[in-house]
């Protein structure tokens, strides 16, 4: 079935461009122009995966017998120990989600004032800063790595700066050493958003032990997950202990509270999911890697699209297939995304827009707006393709064939789509009489 669908679009990737330039009617094979979609079912960017169901049941059996479902039960404690081993970090403090983990950490570090973070990240960090009365200061990213620009970060330091929060975007470590040096020189905190970077390394050392602390999200859409969940990892045992108290209302015993806290504990059900997925993690990464490699090979001959490489000297989770459309592609990223969506290839603009272009951050007082040319160039051209263990290498090759066809027919497709949009607008207008 799939082969037939690929074949039906195959003439569109003919190496003989003189043939395809005259393929106007054939364009109708594209689903957006009335053809049938290349895939029967939607292919998502990072559809949640899960380890073995029977293992999950086994972990749950123990919780069922003891009726221990919450409050740092044995499954959560076991998961913390195993994550500390896996990441090579002294302390892992599990939390209910990544956003709560970041909020508690900033509170326990006693941060106040300005905090520098990339605009090219998930908006949760900026929101967390605002909710704690902190001032987000958006930093540009490096054009090649898509991570915080250390040079721009250094320029943004003022005497009000209290912390820097870089993201290890799409699993590639940020410029850890340069940013660490900036934080040390300024005498301020360094917290890493490691939500994308589970089990990834920087210069051979696993992410988790850098800076004052690192924050993970274990949301179902991440490379490793617990359904909903997150963690703070750090080397400082005192900070970890304060976080353990703060995630449980500050209780140090029955009726005794040592300070302000909240409820950010991970349930035993989530911990069971985490243990199951940790058992299956290496096998899952193998699959992710095979998909990534299929993309690398199949995109090599497609002009105008570049894939963000993983550094093979590091450990990687190969979870995000991050691509960028270059001007040579000949058709805008947004139009490509529409064409792909019609084929059931649910590629995403991620992160789009940059936080500095979202409410309320775009409404900051005049003169303080962020000017972030690299962030804007990347948010306008990035395209995250379906990857992870629910996509197989053949799917990846088919998606690349589709992209090759789009680039071969870029001008004709753009013209055809403009024409059909005009037709539709015309018939809507006439229909309204
Ligand atoms: C997912 C994510 C978060 C938020 O984590 P939650 O567990 O969903 O609260 C923060 N930062 C980045 C980069 C993320 O991808």
Overall pLDDT metric = 92
Rg, rounded, reads: 24 Å
Q: Give the overall silhouette.
A: globular
**Largest sheet entry:** 7 strands, mixed
Question: Portion of residues in helices?
Answer: 40-55%
List low-pLDDT spans: 10-24
**Ends distance:** 43 Å
Range of strand content: 5-15%
| Helix vs. strand class | alpha/beta
Count of runs of 4 or more consecutive helical residues: 15
Bound ligands: pyridoxal-5'-phosphate
Number of strands: 16
What is the strand arrangement across the widest sheet? Answer: 2-10-9-6-5-3-4
Helices and strands in order, then pairings?
Elements: H1 2-10, H2 17-20, E1 43-44, H3 53-66, H4 74-87, E2 91-95, H5 98-108, E3 114-118, H6 124-131, E4 135-139, H7 150-156, E5 161-164, H8 176-186, E6 189-193, E7 201-202, E8 205-206, E9 213-217, E10 230-234, H9 237-246, E11 251-253, E12 256-257, H10 268-279, H11 281-299, E13 305-307, E14 321-325, H12 333-342, E15 345-346, H13 373-381, E16 382-385, H14 393-408, H15 410-431
Parallel strand pairs: 1-15, 3-4, 3-5, 5-6, 6-9
Antiparallel strand pairs: 2-10, 7-8, 9-10, 11-12, 13-14, 14-16
Bound molecules: pyridoxal-5'-phosphate (PLP).
Describe the structure.
The protein has 433 residues and is α/β, with parallel strands linked by helices. The chain has a 7-stranded mixed sheet with strand order 2-10-9-6-5-3-4, sandwiched between helices. Bound molecules: pyridoxal-5'-phosphate. The site of pyridoxal-5'-phosphate has 13 residues, from helix 5.
